Amino acid sequence: MSLEHFLNNAVSSWMKQEGPDSDIVLSSRVRLARNLEEMQFPTVSSNEEAQQIVAIMKQHFGEKKFQDLGELEFLLMEELNALEKRVLVEKHLISPQLAEDSAFGACLLSPNEEVSIMINEEDHIRIQCLFPGLQLNEALQVANSLDDWIEEKIDYAFDEKRGYLTSCPTNVGTGLRASVMMHLPALVLTQQMNRIVPAINQLGLVVRGIYGEGSEALGNIFQISNQMTLGKSEEDIVQDLMGVVQQLISQERSAREALVKTSNIQLEDRVFRSYGLLAHSRIIETKEAAKCLSNVRLGIDLGYITDISRSILNELMILTQPGFLQQYAGGPLKPNERDVRRASLIRERMRLNR
């Protein structure tokens, strides 16, 4: 396995699988924040300490097999160029923060990209597990197994009263962030998201865009996650999130049914106009592409479009991002050049999918 394996394949192996409620829930993620005992957090540590963390993680876990996930590939951020790091961010394998503040950062990736362990991000270690559809409990099980495997070799910073100690106070306790990526076009079209988001926030959860904090909800894709990790068990955090997600799934399906009953021809027109733009445009920007892909995905889910697979949204939402476009081009592209290449790539991919 090599770096090219992660850069050249837009869709991870786990993304090609259908999970529970995958018509609405694109993915489930569990992330555990951990720090090494008696070591300063990355936000205040010296360069020597940061290098020591990287050396420890590489020694114990680089190129080592974990269960049936295979050997974990070790990638040092300082050895990657800006474009390569951007591609890994677009695939959700590393965070924007690790890509930007990566002088002494690294990550460990499983071949199927289901597991990513970020090193020297906001915390020394961030264990991430990704599953298709609504599979938070399954992701938590794998994350906990990885956590135990790592703890066999190193000691974590832990307090009997406070739990796991982390750089950010909101992660103290379990250190757990659970999230789901949801496609909610009908709730957006019916303008229900405006009232749903504040209600979710009041429950101690947070709604973000496709790349987490500070990002936009491109293509009507929202990330729902817990906000606090102290005072609840990991299982309780996951179950609370599951309850809200299941309600959102029910509301989205009801909104889709209502749109079909009351505005069927308008909805069908919206879907096929977007289909036409994707199939024939010669220039298309990121936001317009995301909007059209969302409409086409909705059309597939409602049965308007039958000759394109549902997975096209997952694939093209990544393939059409700036980093991937430039990776395929073999170098930097100006914005207008990216828009032309994006349109060309979408046309080609849609023809192949039919």
UniProtKB/TrEMBL annotation:
It catalyses: L-arginyl-[protein] + ATP = N(omega)-phospho-L-arginyl-[protein] + ADP + H(+). Catalyzes the specific phosphorylation of arginine residues in a large number of proteins. Is part of the bacterial stress response system. Protein arginine phosphorylation has a physiologically important role and is involved in the regulation of many critical cellular processes, such as protein homeostasis, motility, competence, and stringent and stress responses, by regulating gene expression and protein activity. It comes from Sutcliffiella horikoshii. ATP binds at residues 27-31, 92, 126, 177-181, 208-213. One of its GO terms (molecular function) is kinase activity. Belongs to the ATP:guanido phosphotransferase family. Its EC number is 2.7.14.1. Residues 24-255 form the Phosphagen kinase C-terminal domain. Appears to be allosterically activated by the binding of pArg-containing polypeptides to the pArg-binding pocket localized in the C-terminal domain of McsB. Keywords: Allosteric enzyme, ATP-binding, Kinase, Nucleotide-binding, Transferase. A motif (RDXXRA motif of the pArg binding pocket involved in allosteric regulation) lies at residues 338-343. This is Protein-arginine kinase. Pfam families: ATP-gua_Ptrans.
